[in-house]
Amino acid sequence: MNNLKNVTTLWLVMMALTISTYMLGALGFSGTTVVMLLLLTILIKSTFIIRDFMELRGVSTLWKVIMYGWLGVVTLGIAIAYIASA
User: Fold this and answer.
1) pLDDT digit string (tens) for 56-84?
2) Containing domain of residue 50, as a range?
3) Which residues of 27-55 are buried (b: 16+ CB within 10 A; e: fewer)?
4) Phi/psi class of residue 59: alpha, beta or left (left: φ > 0; alpha: ψ in -120 to 50)?
5) Could you give the CA distance from residue 27 to residue 13 in angstroms, rounded to a whole number?
């Protein structure tokens, strides 16, 4: 039962983050601050996916470095590309 609560809570948080990012776009918000907020949301959701849905919570440090390192490199690359083009 406890595991079911955790998964449900995690799903609700991820849905709230998804809806909030959709609403930012639907309401026409734009700019560097909004893009950085979206990237932060992506980081949070990706961390949930890596840790809980891919079940990499208890794996070796090497796997964590690979997965979170990849996530950080991609997110940083997107942020740099956006800021450089603005």
Assistant:
1) 888 999 999 999 999 999 999 999 999 99
2) 2-85
3) eeeeeeeebeebeebbeebbebebbeeee
4) beta
5) 21
Distance CA 46, CA 43 (A): 5
Q: What's the whole-model pTM score?
A: 0.83
Task: Write phi, then psi, for 77 (nearest 5 degrees).
Answer: -60, -40
Cβ atoms of 32 and 86 closer than 8 Å: yes
Q: What's the total number of domains in the chain? A: 1
pLDDT tens figures, 40-55 = 999 999 999 998 888 8
